[in-house]
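User: Show me a protein chain along with its predicted structure.
Assistant: Here is one chain, sequence first, then structure tokens.
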Amino acid sequence: MSGKLQALRKVAALDSRIFELEEKQRQIPKLLQQKEQALEEARQKLAEKEAGLKALRVKAELKEKELQDAEQATIKLRNQINQAKSNKEFQALQHEILSHEADNARLEDAVLQHLQKVDRQKEERDTMAEQVKKTEAALAEDRKRLEKDGQHAETGCEKLRKERAAASQEVPPDIFAKYERLISRRGQTAMVAVSGGSCQGCFMTLRPETMAQLKKGGDLVTCHSCGRILYLEESA
């Protein structure tokens, strides 16, 4: 491989590392946004669970009040039966008391079911609240770590850009200009290897004359399909 291609490969290798670090920097806000969104969704579900628990407690309290009123009504009937003036009135009151007691038993079951639901909902709410706390703590740690990673990536990029500026001085201006145009269109893969007779940028099989030029060395050779600058992998 000629010296000018060796110099260009050095620039391309630096560009690849710069691209990776820049991509890492671009991903950091997205990762944080995803984690923040997950936390917000968990908070929303917790709020919905809290609202559901509150509504369930209200229903339980209303059902308990209904039972208390029903029990008071039954007590009043029991007091009335002691003052019955006839056997007919006594039997009627007794029948009514039995009916009330049956209703009260059903109300007691309903109250118990409501209270059990409240307990289950409370346990679920507490579990969700604990999970939200853990998610908040994890997000705080992730934010610190990702911000630190971003700073390291930026420092690394600055260092690599300086190395690239120095390395680019070793590349002939016309070749470097062509490479820069390809970079603007192809990103980090403006210069790729050839493996198995194929361009590793577009994976098209290269023409025989292209392979012959590459093996001869010296000239800048590009892929007839994608236009990327080529080099033989075994010459790396």
